[in-house]
Amino acid sequence: MESVLLSGAATLLGEARRVVVFTGAGISAESGVPTFRDDLTGLWARFDAQRLATLEAFHSDPDLVWGWYEWRRARVRRARPNPGHVATAAIESLVPDSMVITQNVDDLHERAGSRAPVHLHGSLFAPRCIAEAAHPAPFPGTADDEAADPGEGRRLPPPRCTRCGALVRPGVVWFGEALPEAALASAVKAAAACDVLLTVGTAGVVYPAAEIPRIAADSGATVIQVNPEPTPLDMICATNLRGPAAQILPALVA
Ligand code: BJW
What we know:
The chain is an alpha/beta fold. The chain has helices spanning 3-15, 26-29, 43-46, 49-52, 55-60, 62-78, 83-94, 108-112, 181-193, 211-218, 245-253, and strands at residues 18-23, 97-102, 118-119, 128-129, 168-169, 196-200, 222-226, 239-241.
């Protein structure tokens, strides 16, 4: 990558007063957490999203879905934040008016020191009762439990809610489900008000999350992208830094 692009982006970031860092699965790739859409290693290259990441799938085969998410949760527990997560937390320290908005369901931003990342697609660590209207909060007792790792492709029966006996489901946002209202509202507000939005490691194809960088661009912010591959967001970005997040983000804050 041309160092002039990198130093120009670092200058823009250094001069910004309000920064949003918008992240996707690519930022956790170098921690060993698989992305979704990368050709050979992406989860959707190996697993059927319709059978695993929809409410219908959970209703029809809860043990398959719960087992798959427990396997993923165990993988994330074993992973460690990488220099990209650490640099993101450093941006938050350098720019007090900043926000990390992530589509990721892992907790690597938190473990790297980010203050309160906004999770647009929920969390692997906040399972909840499927009778959501009755129990909207994370399921008590499961959030911090040591996960049993059932192994790849193994079934595991989900626990039952201790209050009503209904099944407990993963606390993530599946296809066709609404994003958490407060998280989406604060993300939209921050995107519309920032000077610089850094979009990192996302294919930018899942909506409404993919609107976030577009809202920033439409509101006059400079959008900088970090991704080894081109994405549909290229055209709204002032700078496209092609490369892995764990190398480029530390160089941006050095
Ligand atoms: C690196 C790197 C390195 C690699 N460094 N980079 C047609 C048009 C528009 C919308 C729709 C449509 N048809 C259906 C929809 C709606 C649908 C949608 O967007 N579908 C599209 C796929 C077409 N959206 C929804 O269903 C959403 N809900 C909704 O619309 O609700 C409406 C509603 C309103 C009111 C009431 C009820 C309903 C919900 C979307 C939920 C997404 N869920 C998932 C799974 C979460 C749980 C789980 O983890 O299992 O979220 S899908 C998956 O995609 C996950 C991710 O957060 C999300 C985004 O993926 P991301 O992060 O971009 O990852 P990848 O793998 O795609 O890309 C990785 C990138 O990293 C690549 O670019 C690499 O190059 C790069 N990379 N290594 C930096 N080292």
